Each structure stands twice: as structure tokens, then as C-alpha cells.
Amino acid sequence: MDRAMKHFIIGARSGFDESLKAVGEGYKAGQVTKDEYANTLRAYQDSREDMKSEPRARAVTFWD
């Protein structure tokens, strides 16, 4: 389970939503520490912020 959580943390730090949810569940189950979860959440938010761009926003609007 530790190895799986480490991979979910890597995914969440890269901005993957499902991985962040899995890390949150791991935190609730006691498999992830509060510090690990907090650091992962900050890295997730930074990653998502880095992905924002005007062309991407227009594409999302177009496809929705």
C-alpha cells in the first residue's frame, strides 16, 4: 500500500485529479501523513496553475 500511495502522490503532484482523490482517501485511512498530504496538495495546485493558458481555456470552451 505504501508503494501505491507513493505513486498516487507522484500523479497528484503532476496535476492528476484522480490521484489527488486517492491520496485524500489514503490520508483519511492513515496511510499518508498530514505533511505528505499538505505538500502533495500544494504541488497539485501549483501544477494545475502552471497548466492554465488562454489557448487551453478557449479549447475547453469550444469543446464544451
Got a strand count?
0
Separation, N- and C-terminal Cα atoms: 37 Å
How would you describe the shape?
elongated
Strand content: under 5%
| Assembly state of the chains shown | single chain
Number of domains: 1
- Radius of gyration of CA atoms, rounded to a whole number: 14 Å
Low-confidence stretches: none
Order of helices and strands: HHHH
- Count of alpha/pi helices: 4
Keywords:
single chain, 64 residues, mainly alpha, 4 helices, 81% helix
Structure description:
The chain has 64 residues and is an all-alpha fold. It is elongated and about 40 Å long. It has helices at 2-13, 17-28, 34-51, 54-63.
In short:
Helix content is 81%, strand content 0%. It is built from four helices and no strands. Helix 1 (2-13) crosses helix 2 and helix 2 packs antiparallel against helix 3 (34-51).
Would you spell out the secondary-structure blueprint of this structure?
Blueprint: H1 2-13, H2 17-28, H3 34-51, H4 54-63
Helix pairs in contact: 1-2, 1-3, 2-3
